[in-house]
Amino acid sequence: MAVPDDDARRKAIRAAWEAAWDRGEVGALDDLLSPSYRRLTRHDEEGQDLTAFKASVIATRAAFPDLVTTIDDIVVDGDRAAVRWHSVGTHQHGFLGVPPTRKEVEVTGATFARFEGDRIVEEFVTWDPRALLAALGIISVGQDQ
Amino acid sequence: MATHPVAPDTDVMKQVNRKFVTGVTVVTAMDGDSPRGLAVNAYSNISLDPPTVMICVQRTSSTHDCLYATDHLAINILSTEQLDVVNTFAGKAPDKFAGLNWTPGPNGSPMIERSSAQMEVEIRERLQANTHTVFICRVRHAAVSDRAPMVYAAGQFFDGAALPGLG
């Protein structure tokens, strides 16, 4: 039956996201993401594997210790899931080369996931790091050399 | 005059920079309860209305990072009476403010006494440009004295009140 499957996947996403993004329990991602997981933000890149993604969650939470991520919308259809989310946190330690600004910022994004069985094997993530930098009042120039 | 169509080497650029005469500022800010500051000659006025200025600070400076956490900083334009001040702030003394007379500006930034002019500014944009950050600032408070400005050229300091005119 499709409906219980969709519901189970929805619950699994919520549980793993809350544990990892809100509490830093990145081990919980093993319940949701396949060992062969790939996280892509562009088509022409290799993206992150599961280990690199866990490290990036830890690094993000180190920079924004009070980070809270809210799932605004979650749509599951068969082996695909779409999540619209926003995160709020205070910039307490260096991030993306920017010294701490002590500012609270919000970023928004969307994640499209593909399941194989009960694990996600691939995610396409859309969010704009420049929007985060702009919220912090940071502009990067002279990156073209 | 020799031209360099590709990338001029660093030594040439250093010589070019020695041909540009500037004043001297000490940029100060509060890092929590501690005052911090450094000597900066990369200061420029941008616009009078609204009053907007910019400074450029090397990322390796011990003052640099606190300029990301604070909303305000002070720009003290040094006078001919402040050779002691510029020598202190151009160096790496652990407490550059020891024995220095200063008062907090309206938003707390250290305004150094005997300066030629002082501004307290609100930091608006931070432009990360490789080794340096350019801070674009809105002037919130300004004061001017009768003291002549210090002049900096090719690594030396000069008396801004004793410059022979060309005309």
From TrEMBL, chain B:
Residue ranges constituting the Flavin reductase like domain according to the UniProt record: 17-159
The keyword Membrane is annotated on this UniProt entry: no
E.C. numbers: 1.-.-.-
GO molecular function term, any single one: oxidoreductase activity
Assigned keywords, A-Z: Oxidoreductase
Organism domain of life: Bacteria
Presence of keyword Oxidoreductase: yes
PANTHER family found in the cross-reference section: FLAVIN REDUCTASE (PTHR30466), FMN REDUCTASE (NADH) RUTF (PTHR30466:SF1)
Protein name listed in UniProt: Flavin reductase family protein
Organism annotation: Nocardioides vastitatis
Source lineage: Bacteria, Bacillati, Actinomycetota, Actinomycetes, Propionibacteriales
